[in-house]
Amino acid sequence: MFYDHNNYRDILTEEFEKRKAHNPNYSLRAFSRDLKTSPSRLSEILQGKQGLSAKKACEIAKILNFNVMETDFFSTLVESEHGRSQMAKKSAKLRLKKFGMQEQRRLSLELFEIISHWEYLAVAELMLLNGAKDSIKWVATRLKISEERAQECIDKLISTGLLKREKGRLQRIDDSLFMWPTEIPSASIKNYHKEIILKSLGALFTTQLHEREYNSLVVPIDAAQIGTAKKMIRDFTVELNKLLTGSRRRNRVYCFSTQLFPMDEIS
């Protein structure tokens, strides 16, 4: 797995080996050419005799078509070794621990079969608000669900390790975005998105304009660009999550949802 690597050199070596497996004639010289560096420098980088600058790390990540999170992870690995100060290196190492938690917290399809309704994620995020209460009534009131449903959600989140009780309050295990496997035709994933769409429809008529934003884009497209469009949406979602969860002043739980689908049919 990408996030299992302990240093950026292993990522580069793995990428080189993948390319060589695809093309036995692919050489380190060809790899250095693709990375826009000299063969001697690349060789010394892989041997640990030279390092990378933050700028060069970003350039390489772009060349290798890393997504936003992969680029952040790769650059953080570089900074943890070659940061300009001990403080920068220490900060990078702390961020790497969070990447590890994010990957461990990646929900398996089996777990998502259990947690396939909007209330579970909403309850978990509610625990990150300033002034969050370990109270069934408070959770039920904030989310407009029954106290029985609030209790059920909390119990299941605790049993699956996504919430814990510590120092007299409910706490999220970490602040990372809940993620699950993509491109898997799962009935529970479909049900989750159906519920989110229905919640969105309700909010359209019950939420004040200044508290929401709805946009639609209807355009003629080249269907071959769908893969690129999906990647852009996923990368943007990661960046938006970093922005919105970066504040220490958390007082509401919001849902951001996007839809991209064909409006025509091919006969």
Give your account of this protein's structure:
With 267 residues, this protein is mainly alpha-helical. The chain folds into two domains: 2-104, 434 Repressor (Amino-terminal Domain), CATH 1.10.260; 106-267, no CATH class. The chain is 56% helix and 3% strand. It contains twelve helices and two strands; from the N terminus they run ααααααααααββαα. The protein has helices at 8-22, 28-34, 39-46, 54-63, 68-82, 86-104, 109-114, 118-126, 136-143, 147-159, 187-206, 226-244, and strands at residues 163-166, 169-172. Strands 1-2 form a two-stranded antiparallel sheet. α4 packs antiparallel against α5, α5 runs antiparallel to α6 (86-104) and α9 packs across α10 (147-159). It is globular. The two termini are 41 Å apart. The model has no long low-confidence stretch (mean pLDDT 82).
Helix content: 55-70%
Secondary-structure-based class equals mainly alpha
Mean pLDDT: 82
Strand content: under 5%
Main pleated-sheet profile: 2 strands, antiparallel
Radius of gyration: 22 Å
Number of domains: 2
Q: Per the principal axes of the C-alpha atoms, what is the gross shape?
A: globular
Largest beta sheet: strand ordering: 1-2
List unreliable stretches of 5+ residues. Answer: none
Tally of separate helices? 12
Give the termini distance in whole angstroms. 41 Å
Number of strands: 2
* Element pattern in H and E: HHHHHHHHHHEEHH
